[in-house]
Amino acid sequence: MSAPTHTPTVSGFDRWFEVTKRGSTYGTEIRGGFVTFFTMAYIVVLNPLIIGTAKDINGLFIGGTDDVVKAITMVTAATALVAGLMTILMGAIGRFPIAIAAGLGLNGYVAFTLAPQMTWADAMGLVVLEGVFILILVLTGFRSAVFRAVPEQLKYAIGVGIGLFITIIGLVDAGIVRGGVPLVSFGIFGQLQGWPIFTFVFGLLLTIILVVRKVKGAILIGILATTVLAIVIEALFNVGSKSGPDGSVVNPVGWGLNVPSVPSSLFAMPDLGALGQFNLFGSFQMIGVIASMLAIFSLTLSDFFDTMGTAFGLATEAELLEEDGDIPHLESILIVDSVAAIAGGMGSTSSNTAYIESASGIGEGARTGVASLVTGALFLLAMFFAPLVTVIPYEAATPALVVVGFLMMTQIRHIDFMDYSIGIPAFLTIALMPFTYSIATGIGAGFVSWTVIQIFTGKAKQIGWLMWVISIAYVLYFAISPIESLLGVGGV
After folding, report:
1. What per-residue string of b and e applies to 43-77 under the rule 16 or more CB within 10 Å gives b?
2. Best CA proximity match to 215, nearest among 20, 36, 406, 403
3. Can you tell me the distance from the alpha carbon of 335 to that of 287, in angstroms, rounded to the nearest whole number?
4. Strand 177-179 vs strand 100-102: parallel, antiparallel, or unpaired?
5. CA 90, 95, 96 angle in degrees (round to 5)?
6. Three-state DSSP class for residue 192
7. DSSP assignment of 455-478
8. What are the boundaries of each domain within the chain?
9. How many CB atoms lie within 10 A of CB 428?
10. Nearest by Cα to 224 from 61, 379, 102, 397
């Protein structure tokens, strides 16, 4: 008689997070969570530099005294706290390896476009209202229905475009690609100069070799090894920072974001004075109802499609799409993302949203929400160990983005470019994301062009009502400036 076979016992934790089901292990998830954190830890430093210097934020937080450092310190703590809590919530509820933090682009819009017209609390109130509106769209099923209404090949184009987008982010942050005149250039006057560039190239080649050789922890090893090299180079050559206190470039061959060095102190108590500084309807009195509604519309449309595009791109990269093309636990993912927008406004850190840098953890093998639990916990620790977060320069973290950008580009094989009716919208989606530094803009260009092509090729009946709604909404979004002028509420 043959011995009876026994099915391995799977814990409730494993069943909830689907670790075994998705072919992962706890070690892989933990490693992926660390990689995602190190790749996007820059937001703990960068968001305060954007938000902490915005109009009115100093007077709001510290009783009118002009202490920019204190404002930045409070925003740093709030940024790490909200990112940590929302990323943990995404892991526990969304059960997907997506990390959440203050959205770049949206924070600049809030800080430099909305805040100058009202108090900081009023601007944060608009962010909260935007999050509430998106949450309503999710709970009514509208947001998921929009995702399912998008043509499949356009969804793949979104993933490819995001791959190029994070690649250009990596190259620009590392200083390989620079803006100016001409529009973009290679290095400095066509040459790669300085030790930071050498560090980036070393990190990129090391990561590529490790990935090609399928070394476990390749991306994490690349980030850590390159950071160590950066610290050694700075200690030997005293390279210094690329930017001055006002953000201007004072040393073209200096380090980006952080000057790598062993910190003198590892621990710092967080100042949470930024929490709760929001006024829901103050903007309606300051700039009027119409202008406030247009501002909420702009925030909503950008946030709405940024997250959907990010989630689909990450799910495709992780090979987690279901047979019908849906993202697992999509509703839960979108609910958490909506709550994160609300939490960002309530925490005075601007709208929080899903981060495409999560692809670095997925590239390391993360497939479940356990990775997000790890990333979130590290963000919470960053509140107390902020000096450690300021060690990693762009040049050590960005090689991971370039490598992951390649991995996401492989999705292009699913797009039929010989069919111009889908190939051209896909091309515009892919091209405009990196060229405009906006996922939402690329998606909008693809949707509107696809709809226009269907109309003028006699296929208007193939356009579902949701695609009509989305396309019209994007036309309004792109035309927001003349609409504001027409209504006499320009300036938002």
Report:
1. bbbbbbbbbbbbbebbebbeeeeeeeebbbbbbbb
2. 403
3. 30
4. unpaired
5. 80
6. coil
7. HHTT-GGGS-HHHHHHHHHHHHHH
8. 16-260+295-487
9. 22
10. 397
What pLDDT is attached to residue 116? 76
Q: Report the alpha-carbon distance of residue 60 to residue 21 in Å, rounded.
A: 49
In this prediction, residues 328-333 reach a mean pLDDT of 90
Q: Which has the higher per-residue pLDDT, 244 or 83?
A: 83
- Give kind and range of the element (H or E) at residue 354: strand 352-354
**pLDDT tens for each residue of 455-470:** 999 999 889 888 898 8
Q: Which residue has the tokens 């987690």?
A: 320
CA 295/CA 302 separation, integer angstroms: 11
Answer positive or negative: Cα dihedral of 311, 317, 320, 323: positive
pLDDT at residue 58 in the model: 45
Contact of 38 with 225, CB cutoff 8 Å: no
Question: Could you give the angle at the alpha carbon of 275 between the alpha carbons of 271 and 281, nearest 5°?
Answer: 155
pLDDT at 425: 97
Q: Which residue has the higher pLDDT, 416 or 169?
A: 416
Helix (H, G, I), strand (E, B) or coil at 178: strand
pLDDT above 70 coverage of the chain, percent: 88
Structure tokens at 412: 């292009």
Query: Rg of the chain over CA atoms, in angstroms?
Result: 22
Give the per-residue pLDDT at 56.
Answer: 54
Token digits for 387? 């000096």
Report residue 319's pLDDT band, with 50, 70 and 90 as the boundaries.
confident
d(CA 234, CA 259): 8
> In this structure, what token pair is assigned to residue 458?
């006699």
pLDDT of 59 strictly over 70: no
Question: How far does the chain reach from its first CA to its final CA, in angstroms?
Answer: 79
- Give the whole-angstrom CA distance, residue 172 versus residue 183: 12
- Tell me if 146 sits within 8 A of 308, measured CB to CB: yes
Say if residues 360 and 399 touch (Cβ distance below 8 Å).
no
| Nearest residue to 84 via CA among 402, 382, 453 | 382
Read off the pLDDT band of 52 (50, 70, 90).
low
